[in-house]
Amino acid sequence: MTAERRPGETTGDDAFIDDLCGRIGGGRAVRLKLPHGGRVHIDRPLPFLALHRERPEAISAALGATVASPLYVVWPEGEAADAFGRRLIARVGAALRTRLGAFLAVELYDLPPPPAPRKADAPTPIPYHYEIAASEHDTARAAAHVLAEALGRIRMQRRKPKIIERREPPGADGPTDGLPRVSLGLPPAYRIPESEGVYPGLLHRLETRVLDALLQAACAVVERSDLPAPAHHRALGRSSFIQAARTVDRKLAGIASSFDFLMSVSPINTAQAWREFRAGKFAQEPKFHYRPLSIDPSERKRALWRVGMRSVEDPVLETLFTEKQQEIDLQLTLLQTRGTRSFKAASTMLYGPVEDRLHDQATALITALAGRRTDLDEADDADAVDCHGIEARALALIDGYRSRYAAFRAQVEIRDDVTGLMVSGPRMMIGRDAKVRPFRVDGLLAHEVSVHLLTHYTGKAQGLQIFRSGLAGYEGVQEGLGVFAEYAVGALSRDRLRLLAARVLATRAMLDGGGFMDTFRLLTDEHGMSARSAFHIAARVYRSGGLAKDAIYLQGLLTVLDHVGKGAALDPFWSGKIAVEHLPVVAELNDRGFLQRPPVTPEFLDRPAAQPRLERARQGLSLADLI
User: Fold this and answer.
1) How far is the C-alpha of 225 from the C-alpha of 460, rounded, in Å?
2) What's residue 6's pLDDT?
3) What is the domain range of residue 182?
4) Which residue from 226, 414, 494, 523 could staple onto 529, CB 3.0 to 4.6 Å apart?
5) For residues 26 and 42, is the Cβ–Cβ distance under 8 A?
6) Contacts 24+ apart (CB under 8 A), 347-355
7) Are 259 and 300 in contact (CB under 8 A)?
8) Range from 130-134, 161-165, 311-315 carrying the lowest mean pLDDT
9) Number of domains observed in the structure of the chain
10) Does residue 441 sit within a domain?
11) What is the pLDDT of residue 7?
12) Residue partners of 184: CB distance under 8 A and separation at least 6
């Protein structure tokens, strides 16, 4: 029983609400536990508030959609908690309406599942309908109309929902004391019939789509406020990370950075193996050696799957984190199966197969270049730039970026256990035996420094480490951007194009069951590659048992050329390491204010000599045009 208060008497609850409303009046963000249970979250002052009374159920779509909102209050059942929740919501709503000129509360709840059938009856299908009711306010009715239209477009297992609109009479029981209010009942379509279980994919889809519908309805409220109209309804979503998202991000980044995937699956004796292979007249398959693993992949997997995603409270970020979690799991599977037959199958899961279309384009490209062979071994070129010359040029380029962005503190290392050039995080590694023709140095550094290293630092500036280490599936477009950078600076030679095409053919041959020697002879005898080039291509493709990665370079270039040829800008790609599939997500996060403008962009984009090439790309380029 609640004790009565004397007139003018304040309580701890009143002080809490007064302090909360003062913060809202000052435009401050708020995330607080409520005295009687529950939580209030105010990302920034907006004229709408999602509400939910927590029920005993462990899983609730209404709760999930509510806590994904930029402003919400959740509170538990119970007399004291409910009384406090009503007072708090009424005061918060009044404070937001005073500040912004409009307000709407949207209370979300779960519709009950159908009653269990008698044993003789057929299983009862889970209904798919929404129930919407609006108070007698123009704002509430306008928002309810938009909400109903948006919900009507949500398909669940190809089913179209039924929208049941109910009239809510004035003074109906609700927690907003006369303020505009909409109530929304969510269907139990994600629940397993006649069971306590749920379908996780359907639950996540419902939460995500309902949140999107709520933001569309919120636009109708914003039109009646003093806020400027958003560029997109998703711009009304959250604009700040909560600590739970940062914690998940940090845990995933910690696991990913605990091992270097490419270094772990790449040989340490490639240069020596080439010398032995050449001395043996190319007659015997080389033997490659690998670094001992510095981690236990099984233990890392256990830690990976202990990272819980439900606390993130943002469906978009939860999806990005889950995709990354799955990608890290595949990388750990590859480490577990290194040197076994299973490695090739696992690598196909990570990088995908070589599709017929890509294989056909690579074959046509290498055939078109067959009569123009110039790929003499770079090591035999008297003017070739060695590892120290490459290092000096790389450091000069890095210094240029550091003068524009002080945090650009990349390192360059000359290594005995690396072949060619490789970037890992903030480091560029150069093989001690590396030799490159002078005109190729600029292109290689545009690729490695101005794409791979640059997006490491621009991703790091975003506040979440996942943009630095890379969203799932980012590697294809990253390598495509790197090759496009080579084109932009005029260093995408015919030899380089032949090499990219040959990598596709070698990867396909490996996936089709060919051995190292079969692929080596395919490249030398059928396609005229030099023995050294063919060896190094085969060594990359057959590392650790067969890595399907090398086909993504040509595929990535085609993806970038298609993107630019459609008139689309490259700007989003400089926000960090992202895939083409993530461009809509990046656009949404930009609209919501999550992402920062890249602190630095590739210097080659501003070169006068690069402008004609960039313009040609905007007009549309095919692989044949690059020859």
Assistant:
1) 36
2) 45
3) 12-240
4) 523
5) no
6) 347/545, 347/546, 347/547, 347/548, 347/549, 348/511, 348/548, 350/548, 350/549, 351/475, 351/547, 351/548, 351/549, 351/551, 351/552, 352/548, 353/511, 353/548, 354/504, 354/507, 354/508, 354/511, 354/548, 354/551
7) yes
8) 311-315
9) 1
10) no
11) 41
12) 62, 106, 107, 108, 109, 130, 131, 132, 147, 210
Give the 3-state DSSP-derived string for 401-460, with helices as H, strands as E and coil as C. HHHHCCCCCCEEEEECCCCCEEEECCEEEEECCCEECHHHHHHHHHHHHHHHHHHHHHHH
- The whole-number pLDDT of residue 380 equals 61
Does the residue 96 lie in any domain? Answer: yes
**Coil, strand, or helix at residue 29?**
coil
| Total Cβ atoms within 10 A of residue 389 | 16
Q: 107 forms bridges with which residues in the sheet?
A: 51, 183
Place of tokens 């290194």: 338
- pLDDT, residue 378, reads 54
Question: Is there a contact between 474 and 439 (Cβ–Cβ < 8 Å)?
Answer: no
Q: Which of 2, 40, 48 is CA-nearest to residue 21?
A: 40
| Cβ contact 185:142 at 8 Å | no
The percentage of residues in the chain with a pLDDT greater than 90, rounded to a whole number, is 78
Asked if residue 384 belongs to a domain, the reply is no
Whether 138 is covered by a domain: the verdict is: yes
pLDDT per residue over 320-361, tens digit each? 999 999 999 999 999 999 999 999 999 999 999 999 999 999
User: What phi and psi values does residue 374 have, to the nearest 5 degrees?
Assistant: -135, 10
Identify the CATH number of the domain in which residue 236 sits. 3.40.630
Q: Which residue has the tokens 């067969």?
A: 546
* Residue 271: CB atoms within 10 Å: 17
Under 8 Å between Cβ of 331 and 295: no
The CB density around residue 396, as the number of other CB atoms within 10 Å, is 10
